[in-house]
Amino acid sequence: MSNLHRILVASYTNDVYTLEFDSSEATVTLKSSLEVGTHPSWLAPHPKDPSLVFTGLEQSDGKIVALKYDENGVGKVVAHASSGGEDPCHLLVKDDELLIANYTSGDFSALPISHEAPYFHSGTPKTIHLTGSGPNTERQKTAHAHGVFWSEGTKELLVPNLGADRVSRLTRGSDGWKVAGDIKFHPGGGPRHVAIYDGMLYTILELTSHVYKHQLLPLPKEPVFLTAVSTLSHPPSGGATAVGMLAAEIVIPETSSAYPTPYVYASNRNDPSPEGDTIVIFEASTSATLALITEVRTGLKHLRGMVFGGPDDRWLIAGGANGGGVRVYERIDGGKGLKLVAQNEKVKAPTGFLWL
């Protein structure tokens, strides 16, 4: 089993970085970088060819860039296309389509693609404009699509709309995708990302730092609300928004013989503590509960993205967009805890990761 792991890093610079994590030496090294354009903040691989990776440029004239990587993790730009909106912040490859969440314009777009050149088969994606607003006058004046996630159990797409406090449920027919329902959240919560495990939907709310748990039932049935908990072990007086704290990412690695119990990992941003932002760990189960297991201080500032990788998803890489670089953790105690094993503070403004 190789001790070397290559990891791509999305960023709020103009570059996508390639890191090499050596688990035997406990080092993470910046090997190369590829200039692609403004704020390539998310990465999505093509399932038929993992060396083909798509990124979105968060700019008013939203762009999608196709990247091709060799066996050494060195990449090149091979194609460009429109994202169909402003500031594409999240991507998902599903079959022969690249599915896009355009944050500022509140658009969901579907772009035909291939794992072979020319990669993009249409200059203009098909777009659905989401609607709605919320009570947070700074962040919720209009709809803001913040993610695209596939639910295999219910055969639908889930698109968090941070601006309207809902997650839209999209199904595909002969004429393309359409909104078939919505999951609503408390006003001002701002759903950002979701994770699904064993029929349960976990939604992280950016603006109030909560995780909601639903039993996700097939359309046209409504999901069953089970519980909501704070991502902060000690919520500040007046709420998280009072001090500018924001929740960001939520991930649930698959269980294995090494990690038989499922856990939910959620990241927080802008913690005023000198020890940096936190990753909180909850125990996932089929019950209505969502119990906080522990909180891990990271030393990172503005912890946005984190992704599991390696055999049995043993390792977690996380980054601080406003400081601290990247840090790699090992899951310990069966997944109940995280132990820092490697770090590199020279990586600038990391926002997302992809294990090659």
TrEMBL record:
InterPro entries: Cycloisomerase_2, Lactonase_7-beta_prop, WD40/YVTN_repeat-like_dom_sf. It comes from the Eukaryota. PANTHER family: 6-PHOSPHOGLUCONOLACTONASE-RELATED, DUF2415 DOMAIN-CONTAINING PROTEIN. Belongs to the cycloisomerase 2 family. This is Isomerase YbhE.
